[in-house]
Amino acid sequence: MSAEMDALTVVNQLRDLAADPLNRRAIVEDQGCLPGLILFLDHPNPQVVYSALLAVRYLAECRANREKMKGELGMMLSLQNVMQKSVSPGETKLLASEIYEIFQSAGKEEAEQAEAAAASCRRKAQFFLGSNNKRAKTVVLHIDGLDDPTRRSLCEEALLKIRGVISFTFQMAVKRCVVRIRSDLKADALGTAINSTKVMKAQQVLRTDDGGELILPFQEEGDEASAAEENTDIPDYLPEEESPSQDPDKAVTRVGSVADGVGWLNTAANFLTRSFYW
Hints:
The protein is α+β, with helices and mostly antiparallel strands. The protein has helices spanning 3-18, 24-29, 33-40, 46-60, 63-71, 75-84, 90-127, 149-160, 187-195, 222-225, 257-276; strands at 136-144, 165-171, 176-182, 201-207, 213-217. The chain has a 5-stranded antiparallel sheet with strand order 2-3-1-4-5. The protein is elongated.
């Protein structure tokens, strides 16, 4: 089998692997595959060039890959060469141009996302006024039924709807929630909001003079409690760092073509190393 035929075989396999979204990060992170694809862009066989462009286009669909691919030595220059070569077929030039534009806009997209994230943080900071606010007071709730992440999410949603809630922290082991609220907000509004979930019931925990605890139920005053102003500017995050989605014991392992493609990925990397590095 000729070297040219070997190159076409390998680049076609890389193209097929890159077509699967599960393989794209691994291909770009590999030390040999991405530089090899760039060298294939200057190959004398038009089929090799077009197949390499398709592989690069697939890899660029993963946003996390774009900055690394754009910064890879020779990537942008090779794309320009393909676009400017008079012998390049029209379809090949269009594909190279499309990829070039994707990489050109990658930096702009990153800047826009960073600005959006900063704006989101500012909005969140305006809602959660901070634990040092002198006009705030702390209410400790004992919540019957607060025994799993789903119930906690319901509780969070109920509290976030109340304008005047500054922050809250859960103590799941003892079914407690420590809430900081504005001094002019009645604690009964918290109880009514949580009780409205129909699956939990809140009581207020008070400290007695002798250092003990006193647990008191909230008054059932639906009309007065429901008058608590509802907050419509709800931030899109949890008010505490511990999140049920971050449980290390429940990490999800992706299965599928990643494992299936490892063998061919190694083969392609070895071929590229033998062919282009000495």
